[in-house]
Write a structure and sequence with these properties.
Blueprint (H helix, E strand, L loop, with lengths): L1 H32 L2 E2 L1 H11 L2 E4 L3 H5 L7 E2 L5 H4 L10 E5 L4 H12 L4 E5 L2 H7 L10
Parallel strand pairs: 1-5, 2-3, 2-4, 4-5
């Protein structure tokens, strides 16, 4: 009991730091990768705003299934192939990968390159599939 009394400040401090960090993660994520959208929001953007979908996964991931009509530009080739989608700088662009990490980096790069409305698919293709949304295996 005496141990707890002397060390309780550390427990409170650790709790405070942990909860503060957890609260900051979404805002840091948004700042780094820009705004993230859920699969439902992404579907609305595709249907209502004719959003362009860019899949930044590797070839084998792409081949296993992708969002219909998506364009495949692997993250490793994004900088050299950005010219292929420059005509969409004013359109809504939705970027996806497997889990949302690589697409966050891609969205950030695209924003720096002048794309105005770039959104990261929060949770990536995994979240898309978990929401029961379809994947295509057709070449786009």
């Amino acid at each position: 009991m005496e141990f707890l009394q002397h060390n309780m400040n550390w427990v409170w401090l650790l709790t405070l730091v942990s909860s503060g960090t957890l609260l900051l993660i979404p805002s840091l994520r948004a700042r780094l990768g820009g705004p993230a959208v859920s699969p439902a929001q992404a579907t609305l953007m595709i249907n209502r705003e004719d959003a362009i979908v860019i899949d930044v996964r590797d070839q084998d991931e792409w081949d296993s299934g992708h969002i219909a009509n998506a364009r495949h530009i692997p993250l490793s080739k994004l900088d050299e192939r950005l010219h292929e989608v420059e005509k969409y700088k004013q359109r809504t662009v939705l970027v996806n990968c497997r889990s949302g990490h690589r697409s966050g980096m891609a969205a950030s790069r695209m924003r720096k390159a002048g794309f105005e409305k770039v959104f990261n698919l929060d949770g990536g293709i995994l979240a898309w599939q978990q929401a029961g949304l379809p994947l295509s295996k057709k070449a786009s």
